[in-house]
UniProtKB/TrEMBL annotation:
A molecular function (GO) term: methyltransferase activity
InterPro entries with a match to the protein in the record: Methyltransf_12, SAM-dependent_MTases_sf
Alphabetized UniProt keyword annotations: Methyltransferase, Transferase
Spans through the membrane: none
Coiled-coil parts of chain: none
Keyword Endoplasmic reticulum: no
SUPFAM superfamilies: S-adenosyl-L-methionine-dependent methyltransferases
Any Pfam family: Methyltransf_12
Protein name: Methyltransferase domain-containing protein
Domain Methyltransferase type: 46-139
Keyword Cytoplasm assigned: no
Organism: Actinokineospora iranica
GO biological process: methylation
Amino acid sequence: MGIGPTIRHKLGRFEIPAAEAYRNRFINLDDLATTLASALPAKRILEIGCGDGSFGQRLCEAYPEAEYVGIDVAPDPGRLFRGDTSRATFRSIPSSELVAERPQLFDLVCIVDVVHHLPESLRVPVLNDAVALSTEDGVIAVKDWERGAGIAHAMAFAADRYVTGDKTVRFPSREELRGYLAAGLPGYDIALEARIPPRRNNVLYVMRRPGHSA
Ligand SMILES: C[S@@+](CC[C@H](N)C(=O)[O-])C[C@H]1O[C@@H](n2cnc3c(N)ncnc32)[C@H](O)[C@@H]1O
């Protein structure tokens, strides 16, 4: 366990505000969820790599009618989720296993700040799984942290590498990220490329098959 989880468990009831304050320095998750909801209707949402449920909670708030499923390879996903549990399900399962279950497909699949945590060999396969889990007219939203040169990037790297204790962290350049999308989501177009506050490093790609619009 890295230093981050150790400290977080000791914070008790202060864990959620501390985790929120920490994350807000890098990404405004409310902004991301409302950006998606303003442009993309969805009734069934999957989040691959949902973590503690922080973004899942925002998605459930931004999509008050939608059913949400969050999966993660880590144990106890959705641990900090405080939203509507009647519409949200969390499972500790890799995306490949969910594909094998052949579940009802999803019209929005989100992959937020996960690609840079994946080993190189899994980056395209996880995106392939997102395709297999999407409806024909579904949307895949990939948000990641673009590698940069400034102080913000140095802080993000230190946070992910040393605070979370994840040794596989490697942030992609914008070109690398677009390369993963091209290889992992064949037949999909970039419907939207956007920057999410407060840092320009936050790049969002909304991917969909041609001929399908919101
Ligand atoms: C920075 S967290 C992001 C959590 C959430 N998406 C959010 O934005 O609040 C990255 C997550 O990716 C997960 N992850 C790493 N490898 C994964 C894999 N192969 N499949 C699914 N999730 C994975 C980690 O366990 C971690 O919870």
